[in-house]
Amino acid sequence: MISDELLFLINLNKLQSVIARKFDSLSAHGLGLNDFVILYILSSSSESKMRRIDLAEKIGLTASGITRLLNPLEKIGLVAREANERDARVSYVVITPNGQKIFEEAKRSAEHITKEILSSRKSKSLKTVNEFLFDLGGNIQ
Fold first, then answer.
1. DSSP run (H or E) holding 22
2. What are the residue ranges of helices labelled H in 23-96?
């Protein structure tokens, strides 16, 4: 027998996998779920750009992990690098106009998927669950 807390985390891990599979349909826009999250964060950030390290922290990845995710997005022109005029050691990731367009299109699909996952009867306690996940570190926004 395992603790309720451990069982909760195991079930949370499974839920993450189920959600990721459902969001596989974002591939019609050329995106995976992590790509979509990156574009979301960039599009909602100040000036639609962030330092790589801040973006990595926001998503919960290492600096090398975010670089691995950003390289393909940069290659297809959804994000770009921008140098910091004051500090050559710092670079920004900026969402491109094409990246913003793809994000807006994919957002409609993501909202549809979300409605399938979270029917109105399930979303009654959504605020409480969101607050709990925020307390655990799931604080993207």
1. helix 4-22
2. 33-44, 52-59, 63-75
Could you identify the residue written with the tokens 């709990």? Answer: 132
- Per-residue pLDDT for 94 more than 80? yes
Residue type, 64: S
Type of residue at 50: M
Assess contact for 59 and 140: CB atoms under 8 A: yes
Instruction: For residue 125, count CB atoms less than 10 angstroms from its CB and return exposed for 0-12, middle for 13-18, buried for 19 or more.
Output: exposed
Q: What six digits make up the tokens of 92? A: 């920004």
Q: Which of 3.40.50.2300, 1.10.10.60, 1.10.1740.10, 1.10.10.10 is the CATH number of 20-136? A: 1.10.10.10
Which residue has better confidence, 119 or 30? Answer: 30
Both tokens assigned to 54: 């801040």
Can you give the pTM of this predicted structure?
A: 0.84
DSSP 118: S
Return the structure tokens found at 136: 């655990």
